[in-house]
Amino acid sequence: MLNEIKNRIFSEIRKYTRDLRNIYSSSKLSPALFKHIEEFLLRDSKKIRPVLFAIGYLGFTGKPASGLYRSALSVEILHDFMLVHDDIIDKSDVRRGRPSMHSMLDKYVAKYKNIKFNGADLAIITGDVIYAMGIGAFLSIKENPERKEAALKQLINTAIYTGTGEFLELLSETKELNRVTKDNIYKIYDLKTANYSFACPLALGAILAGAKKRDVNKLIKYGIFLGRAFQIKDDLLDMVPEERRLGKSAFSDLRSSKRTILIWHAYNNSDKKDKLKIKSILEKDHINRLDLSAIQKIIDKTGTINYAKREIDELLKKAGSIRKRLKINETYKNILISHSEEIFDL
Fold it and tell me: Cα–Cα distance between 266 and 274 in angstroms, integer?
């Protein structure tokens, strides 16, 4: 059943990119713009979010409404919009093992002379277009208009939360490390990752299906714990040199001086000398390989990797406890368990 849902999602994204030519007359409007969008949307990814959207819906209805899988794509398309803008902010040249959108567009505009804009400028616009496409895709489902309106409000709120999380994360880089708390970091994780990647997709599906508010709230809480664990896992993977493990630039969080759980734990469990070392490295404009090696040694010395793994285990236990109390169809509850285990390679 899980594979069936995934296959429907993957089939739908291919169909959606073909339909762009008819939906938005893309070949007439701007072939270059939509060529880059199509390439970006079709890149390999696990499509975690639309699968959760579908599970959230099917768990209360047992059968798909017309347009469900096109609507489910909306959360993945919005994810792509966020990635485009994130890569500009993080100055990351790689996304899903290929050039990031602004890198692709830098190459595209290189043929023009005396231009006063660059690939990043075009990528901001491209991201905005992808965002609008995501909203359009969401409206595809044939469902009760009141439920659609309620779900759309949830989607818009989540987009606001995500932008707020990005805003706070950037500002957190100005904060002295000794003033950063675990709660500060989890607030950003919840706003920037957990809500839109886990809680929102599940909630959208459930709202569209007509689930009771208390059941939607349980799904949101479940998604928050799952999302926190996922972000810590992502922080751990960022420390792995092989970029192909993530499909993005290795050490991108460190290079961006992000206050992650790993940095927080390593700093708070270091001696004075190592605290100063971490602080001085994160204040640099350009972090080199020696700096990265120094941070990794401190992380190893402070037992930060094991701490992060324990934190993931604890969060997954909390999520599991909530999942047991979810009032959704048992078949789809089991599919949700399988999907969660797959995400975390359990």
Answer: 9
Q: What is the pLDDT of residues 64-101, one digit of tens each?
A: 999 999 999 999 999 999 999 999 998 889 999 899 99
Residue 54 C-alpha from the chain's centroid? 17
Q: What is the pLDDT of residues 310-334, one digit of tens each?
A: 999 999 999 999 999 999 999 999 9
DSSP letters for 302-339: TTHHHHHHHHHHHHHHHHHHHHHT--S-HHHHHHHHHH
- Using CB atoms within 10 Å of the CB of residue 38, give its burial: 0 to 12 exposed, 13 to 18 middle, 19+ buried: middle
Domain residue spans of the chain: 2-343
Angle formed at CA 189 by CA 168 and CA 267, multiple of 5 degrees:
85
* Residue 178 DSSP class: G
Long-range CB contacts (within 8 A, 24+) of 182-189:
182/261, 182/264, 184/259, 185/259, 185/260, 185/261, 185/264, 186/228, 189/165, 189/227, 189/228, 189/231, 189/232
Considering only CA atoms, give the Rg of the chain.
21
257: left (phi over 0), alpha (psi -120 to 50) or beta: left
CATH class of 2-343: mainly alpha
**Helix %, strand %, coil % of the chain (to 5):** 75, 0, 25
Tens of pLDDT along 236-291?
988 765 444 555 555 666 666 788 999 999 999 999 999 999 999 988 888 888 98
Residue 226 has which token pair? Answer: 């799952």
In Å, what is the CA distance from 312 to each residue of 137, 193, 253, 336, 346? 33, 15, 18, 18, 12
At 85, the amino acid letter reads H
